[in-house]
Amino acid sequence: MEKRNRIRTSRGDRVFEICNFIFMILLMIVTLYPFINILAVSLNDAQDSIKGGIYLFPRALTLDNYQYVFKEATIFHATLISILRTVIGTVVTVLGSAMVAYTISRQDYVLRKFITIAFILTMYFNGGLIPNYLLMRDMNLVGSFWVYILPGLIGVFNLIIIRSFIENLPESILESGKIDGAGDFKTFISIVLPLTMPVLATVALFSGVYQWNSWFDVFLYNSSKINLSTLQYELQKILQNSTATAGTSSMDGMINGANGSQQGAVTPLSIRATMTIVASVPIIMVYPFLQKYFVKGMMVGGVKG
Fold first, then answer.
1. 51-85: pLDDT as tens digits
2. Which of 17, 19, 161, 164 is the most buried (most CB within 10 A)?
3. Per-residue CA distances from 233 to 79, 87, 213 (Å)
4. Which terms in the GO cellular component ontology are assigned (predicted)?
5. What's the whole-number average pLDDT of the chain?
6. What is the end-to-end Cα distance of the chain in Å, rounded?
7. Are 176 and 291 spatial neighbours (Cβ–Cβ below 8 Å)?
8. Rounded CA separation 123/291 (Å)
9. Cα–Cα distance between 223 and 82 in angstroms, integer?
10. What gap in Å lies between CA 224 and CA 175, rounded to an integer?
């Protein structure tokens, strides 16, 4: 009987593994197909793309779409500003949110409930666009790089996530630092940060994606400052210009190439696809370096600390 049950169990496991494998393959296809399709459109000739029928591979391979996007002189400087904004903004947001989260997670802190409620209220109530602009102006942040960084110094959603993670840490590990004579700041640096590395990596990814993709604040505060323009804002302007130009073109929305002829011409469709790839690749390249932290357990960090 035991042998028969073992055989049944092993067969059931095989069926589950096969079904799980098929499901994961289908999920991977559904997830990757839109990105691969957009990549194929961005690498395909714009005039040929109008015909449709492009799925996984470009039918007429060309780099004209990328040349059209990167022909703008401000693109490379805007990319540098976007990188600086993403790196600095992510580091500052993660450290700032983690420090406040550690503070309000301490049971002996008298104002922890009041400060937590005050932060949470900001998630539901906002002064609005005009009051925010007036606030940035009165703080002399309009027309400066720090308008990208300081308003997001503390992310309330990130704060709640990190605080919940810290509250689940074994209290004995935190008390061990105090027994050794460490203060709150040293405890935070030496013990809390290594323990919370998985959640900090997740928050860093959220914050990095937000900083990299943000363009509306550039439009509000620094639209007249070319030297502070970001990649996303420049791509947005290219898309708007291409759409406006296509509206006056005679060949189904075709836009002449850089030399003014139909050779190397692009369309709003090809520009959107190219912009999606240009904006997505840097985040995709960063993700593998953060992925390893997502699977780390809390006690692994405790042993390393």
1. 778 888 888 888 888 888 888 778 888 889 999 99
2. 161
3. 10, 18, 9
4. plasma membrane
5. 80
6. 50
7. no
8. 28
9. 14
10. 52
How many CA atoms lie within 13 Å of 2's alpha carbon, on the beta-carbon side? Answer: 0
Residue 262 CA, chain-centre distance (Å), reads 37
**Radius of gyration, CA atoms only, the chain:** 26
Phi–psi pair at 44, nearest 5 degrees: -100, 150
Domain architecture of the chain: domains with CATH: 2-71+230-294 (no CATH), 75-224 (1.10.3720.10)
What CA–CA distance (Å, rounded) separates 254 from 265? 6
Of 233, 74, 220, which Cα lies nearest the Cα of 141? 220
**Which residues have CB under 8 Å from 188's CB, separation 6+?**
98, 99, 102
d(CA 81, CA 86): 8
At residue 302, the pLDDT reads 40
Over the stretch 136-189, which tens digit does the pLDDT of each residue have?
999 999 989 999 999 888 888 888 888 888 888 887 777 777 777 777 788 888
**How many angstroms separate the CA atoms of 208 and 201, rounded?**
10
Buried b (16+ CB within 10 A) or exposed e, 199-222: bbbbbbbbbbbebbbbbebbeebb
What is the rounded distance in angstroms from the CA atom of residue 215 to the CA atom of residue 275? 13
**With contact defined as beta carbons under 8 Å apart, do 249 and 216 qualify?**
no
| Separation between Cα atoms, residue 78 and residue 228, nearest integer Å | 7
* Residue 305: band (very low, low, confident or very high) from pLDDT cuts 50, 70, 90: very low
Beta carbons within 10 angstroms of residue 269's beta carbon: 19
**Cα dist from 249 to 51, 228, 241, 252, 263, whole Å:** 17, 32, 12, 7, 15
Token digits for 184?
């709150």
